[in-house]
Amino acid sequence: MSCDIETILDHCIEEMQAGRSMDAVLEEHPDMADELRPLLEVVDGLQTLPDPPLVIDDLMSALSRTVNAQDPPQRERPRSKVALFSHPILMRVAAGIALVFALGLASTVASANTVPGDFLYPVKRLVEKVRLVFSVNSNEAELRITFSEERFAEGLKKYYQDGVVDDALFRQMLEEAKLALDEALELPPEEQTTLISRVGYLAAHQKNVIETISQSASPAAQKTLEPVAEMCGRRMRWMEGMMRDAQMASPTCPNCSQSGFERAGSTDEAPESNTDPPKRSMGEWMQMCPDWN
User: Which residues contact 281 (CB under 8 A, 6 or more apart)?
Assistant: First the structure.
């Protein structure tokens, strides 16, 4: 592909502005999807923020005029592949960055304990996306674990505050944990083992808490929590199999409750046999990851 990433990013932003989804846009650039996705997520996140105050727009316009005025009139500066001050979306990105500096860290700190529906929650999610953009593999895996914990905490907070089960948050919780494992597979063996163990113990804890909540929840909440608890159980058994084949200690969860689903057994579990099942590689286990589909 002859176009560089800046030109492709510019095109993708325009396509998303026109109403196309991020996934549809990225399908046109499969070789660069991993590089483009975090950048597009940041841009998409900025769309959910309040418009920058007029003073920021004025600042960026003044800066644009100052930069342009520095060129001698007889020489035209080569046009940047990403027109920072002429492209509306990238102008908004620059304005958003300037706004962060203008406001300091106050809004970021204030957004830390927000949940979906709170005014500053988009700020919290945008900060997460920015952190991913500037992360390396090991740090990205750590961040994904942190984000799984965040979605879990947000789901619990909404339930205890409002009595509402936001199953979308619990689905995101499980997805972030899976993404952490994806990143962990790219790491050296020592780091890989540590991160997989962390995800395993996190899965055990999340499964226990959700099942405990479900036992005392209202009938309506139990109906919503049931598939979440079931998926947590399937993920837990999947993690146990993966860690067993990798000769890692399976995660334990003291006083974990056992759901009716688990007591009745599951098709995910292999039937009892006198012979040990063949061991699978980490890659094979990742392909078997239980999902909502």
Answer: 245
pLDDT in tens, 224-259: 899 988 998 899 889 889 888 888 887 665 555 444
Q: Could you tell me the two tokens for 210?
A: 């959700």
Q: What number of CA atoms fall less than 13 Å from residue 204's CA on the CB side?
A: 16
The answer as to whether 249 is a domain residue is yes
The number of folded domains in the chain is 1
The burial of 71, by beta-carbon neighbours within 10 Å (0-12 exposed, 13-18 middle, 19 or more buried), is given as exposed
CA distance 62 to 4: 29
Closest CA to 158 of 143, 173, 175, 177: 173
Q: What is the pLDDT of residue 174?
A: 93
Note whether residue 37 is domain-resident.
no
84: in domain: no
Q: Could you tell me if residue 167 is inside a domain?
A: yes
- pLDDT tens per residue across span 164-207: 889 899 999 999 999 999 988 888 888 888 899 999 889 889 99
Which pTM value belongs to this model? 0.66
What range does the domain containing 198 cover? 137-266+279-293
